[in-house]
Write a structure and sequence with these properties.
This protein has 323 residues and is mostly beta strands. The protein is built from two helices and 15 strands.
Length: 323
């Protein structure tokens, strides 16, 4: 099967027989927020995650990236320590896009400095705060012959003309947040309806729609933006030291990604950002929660033709992928 036959090559140049190698800097995050009463700011718990340097490669629909947060990229700070496993996988097929998330974080601080801590020179830190979330979504790319996610986010294609596509799909997400004591700092409890909550559990699922577009200037320079809005039915449990309250709500959830940079037949240099916002509405009218996950990345990629020995191995992969 020739993937070029599935693309309008006036718009997309697919590099089906080439390998895309890349080097990148990446920073992932999972932020936990709580809405305050009218006139009061949102409490925003942030993790102290590492800036990672990595290498990777893509061949057709297969991608492998490996990164590590070297110490010289991550000097010691006064934000406390975060232990985390962050699994974010984005599969960009020609007709479908899949997003898989698996976040497991422990150790947070409140931004900005001074909020909740009682000192303008210190961050309020919560080493006991755990945030876990897993989810999957799938969206159909309707104009897949002329619009390419791969050009911006995998660097394995070249979007040569501007094009966009409507998206339709859905997703499901499960999460829980817990701590040894109430999420809200004692100094701020009068301003937040969730003042006694120390554990949160939720399951949300539902359909979604969206749109993606790539603007191309002079064939090589591009800006891509993609947004999805999901209308999820949410099942929520909030717990204090003495009770657990269950509730159900319709929650709009948002998934956004963007990338911009330079693309050509050989090189791709780009900056990208993928972020997912899960909104959780519990028992309090002015006391919702949100979990924001994301990945910020700077990438330099080079395409090359594999040698004869590597080509023999890739031919076996082709036979599997072409089935």
């Amino acid at each position: 099967m020739c993937l070029a036959q599935d693309r309008d090559t006036n718009y997309i140049e697919p590099y089906t027989k080439m390998i895309t190698g890349r080097a990148f800097f990446s920073q992932k995050y999972t932020i936990f927020g709580m809405e305050g009463k009218p006139g009061f700011r949102e409490i925003q718990y942030r993790p102290n995650t590492n800036l990672s340097f990595g290498l990777g490669a893509t061949y057709r629909s297969l991608t492998l990236n490996l990164g590590y947060g070297f110490s010289f990229l991550n000097p010691e700070t006064d934000r406390g320590k975060t232990k985390y496993i962050d699994l974010q996988t984005h599969i960009y097929g020609m007709k479908w896009r899949y997003d898989l998330f698996g976040q497991f974080y422990k150790g947070y601080y409140i931004f900005p400095k001074g909020f909740g801590s009682g000192s303008d020179n210190e961050f309020y830190k919560r080493p006991d705060l755990n945030v876990r979330e897993i989810g999957i979504s799938a969206f159909h790319i309707y104009n897949n012959k002329r619009f390419s996610y791969r050009a911006a986010f995998l660097q394995s294609e070249w979007q040569r003309k501007s094009a966009g596509s409507f998206l339709l799909g859905g997703g499901i997400v499960y999460g829980n947040v817990r701590a040894d004591s109430a999420f809200v700092p004692s100094r701020e409890q009068a301003n937040y309806e969730q003042k006694d909550i120390k554990a949160l559990r939720y399951l949300e699922l539902g359909p979604g729609l969206g749109y993606a577009y790539t603007f191309v200037w002079k064939e090589n320079w591009f800006v891509t933006a993609s947004a999805n809005l999901n209308f999820d039915l949410g099942f929520v449990e909030e717990s204090t030291n003495t009770e657990t309250v269950s509730s159900r709500h319709i929650s709009p959830n948002f998934l956004f990604r963007t990338g911009f940079g330079y693309n050509s037949a050989d090189w791709n240099i780009n900056f990208s950002w993928v972020t997912n916002r899960t909104s959780v509405s519990g028992q309090f009218p002015k006391g919702s929660y949100n979990i924001n996950t994301g990945n910020i990345r700077l990438t330099v990629a080079k395409r090359f033709i594999p040698g004869k020995e590597l080509r023999k191995i890739l031919n076996h992969i082709d036979r599997v992928l072409d089935r």
